[in-house]
Specification:
It is built from 7 helices and no strands. The chain is an all-alpha fold. The radius of gyration is 19 Å and the shape is globular. α1 packs antiparallel against α2 and α3 runs antiparallel to α7. The chain has 2 domains: 52 residues; 125 residues, no CATH class. Keywords: Membrane, Transmembrane, Transmembrane helix.
């Protein structure tokens, strides 16, 4: 096994920056989540997790549908920003990691121009959103006002302050996560 420097991985720096940002915000749960992510990405980039050879897991559709329904109900009726909601989200995390973190094998298709343009558009949108959030959060905390420099969460909080908003957010959050993890795809 050849050790590499985990510091050379861009994801390490993104996770580390986000972790430091969560410390600045004073968000303990987010600090723990992104701190653990930073450590895992560093260990993976340094080839220290190469001994873990996980195959891509496959779940039955019924298990996926049932789990999604339970999570939607839980996140719809549990009050937001409470310890119980944090416990639910943290309980989901190991399962999401198991579906996301596996040994990638086989040949990869080369991206054509259309895919490359889409990748660049998503990357530009992501970086723009990241810069908005960082600037709004830092400026808002320095100004001691959430309204002067609103983050996206401040802007959408009024929509999420009822059961229907929470349910819609949970559905959207799960669809995006399941899409990224490709759980709908049959083995």
């Amino acid at each position: 096994m050849q050790l590499k420097l985990g510091f050379r991985n861009l994801w390490f720096w993104l996770f580390l920056t986000t972790t430091v940002f969560q410390v600045f915000r004073g968000s303990l749960i987010d600090t723990l989540i992104f701190g653990a992510g930073t450590v895992m990405v560093f260990l993976s980039a340094a080839n220290l997790l190469n001994h873990v050879h996980l195959s891509k897991p496959h779940a039955h559709k019924f298990a996926i549908y049932t789990t999604v329904l339970v999570i939607i109900l839980a996140l719809s009726f549990v009050p937001r920003h409470t310890p119980l909601q944090a416990i639910i989200v943290l309980a989901i995390l190991p399962f999401a990691l198991r579906f996301a973190w596996y040994s990638d094998v086989g040949p990869k298709d080369k991206a054509d121009r259309r895919i490359k343009r889409a990748q660049m558009a998503w990357a530009a949108g992501g970086v723009g959103l990241l810069l908005w959030e960082f600037a709004a959060n830092i400026l808002g905390q320095l100004d001691k006002s959430l309204k002067s420099f609103p983050t996206l969460s401040v802007l959408i909080d009024p929509v999420l302050d009822n059961v229907f908003g929470q349910a819609a957010f949970a559905v959207l959050w799960l669809i995006i996560g399941i899409g990224f993890l490709r759980l709908w795809k049959t083995p």
